[in-house]
Amino acid sequence: MKRQLLFVGIIGLLTAMRAGAQYDLHRLTALYHTALELRTLTEKTMTDAIVLTREIQPYRAVRHLNEDADRLEMLVGHLEADTPRDMQDLVRTVRRIEKLLVPWLMEIKNPEPGRRFARVAAKGYKKLAAEEAFYLHTLKKYLGMDDETLADLDRVMQFYIDAQRGFVSYLLKDDPVRSVYGPVMDLKGDGTALFDKALTQVRKLMSRYSAEPSLRKALKSMYADLMFFREAVQRGYRPEVFYISFEKFDGKYRRFLQLFFEKNKWI
Amino acid sequence: MKKVIWGLVMMVLGLSPGEAQTDMRALYESILEMQVASMRLSRDKLYEIYHPDFELLQPDMARAISISEDMMARITDAMDGSEWERQFGAVEDVWNHLRLSMMSPLAPEEYTRFHYECVTLNRYLDVLADTLEARLESRYPHLDRVRNRYALRQGIYLVNTGYMTRHHELARSMQHILDEHLPRVRRRVEALKKNPPPEASASISLLAAVLNEWNFFHYNLSNPLFSPEKTLFSMANTLNLHIYLLFNRPQKSGKS
After folding, report:
1. Which end of chain A is more exposed for a tag (fewer CB within 10 A), N or C?
2. Does residue B253 lie within any of the structural domains?
3. Domain encompassing residue B96
4. Which of B58, B66, B104 lies at the smallest CB-CB distance from A244?
5. Of B76, B81, B99, the CB nearest to A228
6. Widest CA span of chain B, in angstroms?
C-alpha cells in the first residue's frame, strides 16, 4: 500500500513539474481574449473617427470615440502586464503596439474631413492593425487548440471586422477620401459583399455553437442585425439612422465575445 | 415576505432595491415609448404609400426608427439573461422582422400585414409592461397615469392612421381603426382637461397649447373643405411633442 501511494505521489509530482514548465493555458487564452478585443476595438475606433468626419450623430460619435480610445489604452495596459516576460516576440509586439497607439489616438481624437486627416489616420491604423494581428497570430500557436476551434476564433474576429468595414464602405461610397482608406481597410463596393461575408461567418459559428442557448441567442441576434445592415446598404438607407443600429450591434458583439470565452470555459 | 425576498435577490445582484426599482421604472417607460414609436412607424409607412414625396416623411421615419432602435436595445438589454427572456424573447424577433420590412416602400396590401405586425409587437410590449407594473406599483402608486399619457400619444398616431385607412382603399380589417381609437383619445383629452395631473398643471400654457392643437386636429378629421392628410401628419407630431414636453419638462437647476 505504501509503495502504491509513493508511486502515485511521484507520478503526481512529475505531472505538476511538467505542467509548470509549460505556459499557463488558461492565462494565455485570457490574454488572447484581451488581444481579440483590442483588435476589434481598433477597427471600431477607426469607424468612430470616420463617422465623425461625416458629422453623423456627432454627439454620440464623439462620446463613443472617447470611450473607445480610453478602453484601447486600458486593453494595451492589460496586454503589457499579462504577457509572459519570457515570450520575447509577444513582449516586443506589445511595446510596438503601445508606441503606435498613443500618437494614433491623439490624431484621431480630432477628426476632420479631408485627405490630410485621412492619410494620417489610415497610416497609423495600418501599422497598428498589422501589429495587433501579428500578436494574435503568434499567441494562437501557444493556445494548444485544435484547428477547427482556432478557425472559429478567427471567424469570431473576422465577422465583426467585416461588418465594420462594410459600414465604412457604405459611408464612404461616394467620398473622395475613400481612395485613402480603401486599400488599407479593404473596403468593397457599398459594403454589401462585406456584410455577406460576415453573415457567412456567423452562420458557420451558429452551426457549431447553437447547442448553447445563450450563444445561439447572441449569434441569432447579431445575424438579424447583419441582415438588416445588408438590406440597409443595398437600399441606400440613411447612415444617420443606420449608425444607431450599428452602435447597438457593437454592444451585442462585446457581450458575445465575453460569453463565447466564458461558455467555452477559456476564461 | 415577497419584498424581503426581492430585496435579498437584489442584494445578491449588488443592487439596492431602490436602484433596481429605478432601473425597472426606466425600462417601463422605454417599453411604453417603444409602443408609441411602433404606431408612429406604422403611420409613416402608410403615408409613404400615398404621399411618397412629402418632405416631412423621411426625416420623421428616420427619427422614429432611431427612437425604436434605442428603446429596443434598452428593452432587450434589460431582458438579457433575465427571467423574462423566455417569455418575451419573441419581442426581438418581431422587431427584427419589422425593421426589415420598414426599409422598402410597401404596397397597400403589404401595409396591412405591416400594421398588424406593429400591433403584435405592441401587444407583447403591453404584457411586458403589465408584468413590470405589477412589480413597480408598490413604489410608484400612479403608474396608470404614466401609462395613460403614453396611450394618449399612441392613440393620436392611431387616429391619424385610422383617418388614412378610412379615406383610402385598404383592407376591410383596417376600416375600424378610426372608430375604435378616436373616442378613446377624445376621452383621454377630456380627462386631461378636467383633471390635469400635477406635472401638466405646472405648465398651463403648454397644456392650453395641447388642448388647442387637439381641437384643430379633431376639426381637421372632418374638414370638408380640403384634404387635410398632410396637416394631420404635422399636427399629430406637434401634439405628440407637446404632450411629451408637458410631462417631461427640463428641471430648473436653481431655486430662484
Report:
1. N
2. no
3. 17-247
4. B66
5. B99
6. 65
